[in-house]
């Protein structure tokens, strides 16, 4: 993890941010972006995953516990100006919806709440999906019988967010890949927009979008579907707009 970088705008100085799901791949990138912007960072992750944050342990406060544990979330989000939440539909105990509910209920009034999910979540049913995405969703739903995954719980989490009167943003990720940052992803209101055609974002840039959303009021109560800014579809859109 790099130290605070003066070249990065110090938009987080004097502000506290909570990252729920901080130990995962997306979470660790978000921690890094938040520290670089000068935020005081609080992380939440499962007890057994706390060691994954060893590299930043002296720079952040970590609360170990399940992210749908209301007591853990209540303590972690106390006094936070923003809460970034990785929504994951693991298990069959309402992990995603329980996490979303705990964050919505306990975050301080007016806090910026930014959640992650995939393109499969639709706010108004007007997204247009390829057969590949439809098949992947059907397969993921089918996996509920293994009791390892409950994709429908991520839909329930999204419904809670959409109905909430908080200052939320639900960032809908495309397929993800690793690699160095290419810059802030571009977005569209609906899947099916040609700008999203490439369906690929660097995970580090997905995290960047989540952190930058905190200070972007145009994203309040929006569910942007994102794609990498250097992908062919994003570049073609830029060229057409020029
Ligand atoms: N993967 C994709 O291609 C993709 C595409 C679009 C959108 N997204 C969205 O991106 C976000 C991050 O997903 P990711 O795939 O990149 O993974 P990730 O960042 O590695 O996050 C996985 C999270 O799930 C937690 N987790 C793993 N197993 C668990 C379990 N059994 N019970 C409870 N929590 C568990 C991890 O915590 P520990 O550190 O404790 O294991 C971690 O916080 C999600 O919101 C996802 O919907 C992903």
UniProtKB/TrEMBL annotation:
Gene3D superfamilies: NAD(P)-binding Rossmann-like Domain
Domain NAD(P)-binding: 21-216
Domain of life, source organism: Bacteria
Pfam families: NAD_binding_10
First and last residue of the signal peptide: none
Protein name: NAD(P)H-binding protein
């Amino acid at each position: 993890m790099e130290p605070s970088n003066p070249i990065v705008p110090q938009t987080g100085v004097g502000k506290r941010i909570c990252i729920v799901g901080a130990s995962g791949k997306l979470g660790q990138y978000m921690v890094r972006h938040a520290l670089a912007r000068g935020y005081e960072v609080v992380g939440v992750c499962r007890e057994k995953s706390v060691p994954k944050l060893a590299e930043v342990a002296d720079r952040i406060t970590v609360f170990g516990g399940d992210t749908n544990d209301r007591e853990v979330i209540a303590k972690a989000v106390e006094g936070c100006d923003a809460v970034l939440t990785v929504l994951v539909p693991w298990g069959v105990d309402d992990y995603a919806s329980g996490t979303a509910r705990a964050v919505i209920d306990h975050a301080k009034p007016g806090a910026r709440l930014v959640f992650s999910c995939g393109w499969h979540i639709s706010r108004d049913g007007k997204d247009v999906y390829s057969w590949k995405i439809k098949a992947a969703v059907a397969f993921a739903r089918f996996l509920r019988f293994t009791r390892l995954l409950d994709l429908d719980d991520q839909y329930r989490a999204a419904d809670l967010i959409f109905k909430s009167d908080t200052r939320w943003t639900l960032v809908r990720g495309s397929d993800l890949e690793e690699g160095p940052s290419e810059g802030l992803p571009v977005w569209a209101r609906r899947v099916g927009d040609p700008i999203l055609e490439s369906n690929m974002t660097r995970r580090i840039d997905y995290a960047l979008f989540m952190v930058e959303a905190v200070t972007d009021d145009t994203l309040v109560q929006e569910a942007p579907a994102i794609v990498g800014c250097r992908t062919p579809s994003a570049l073609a859109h830029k060229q057409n707009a020029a």
